[in-house]
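My current task is to audit a protein record that another person submitted. I have pasted the whole thing underneath without changing anything:
***
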Amino acid sequence: MSVSRLLPALFCTLLLTACGHALPELPGFDAAIWRRDTYACQNQRQSQLNTLQKHKELLYGTRADDIDAFFGRPDEEELSEQTEKIYFYYLEPGPQCEPSHQRSTANKLVLRFGPLGTVTEVLFERPIVQAPTGI
């Protein structure tokens, strides 16, 4: 392959790897506690929630591999048609703590990644409270 063909490919690779940023430190957040509490079954993530909510803006633009290193593997993950993905981290115990780890309506942190693999949305999902029927 000639140098004239190699240079554009190298430039594109460098450009794509430069997109996004490493996750800055979240003051007061103990990532080790978070990572140890898989599926939030030990209810340890609750103690980190206020700090996370306070500094959630720092998550925007962070690369997926940095999120993985900081928070650990997501409890659940979805991929969309347009190369976007969504990470779910449970915030409280629920049916996801059963051996089958079925999807639960328990509160969770939702991180949405855009096509460049960086965080574009940070949400805290709340379970839907349904009114009793037959009243």
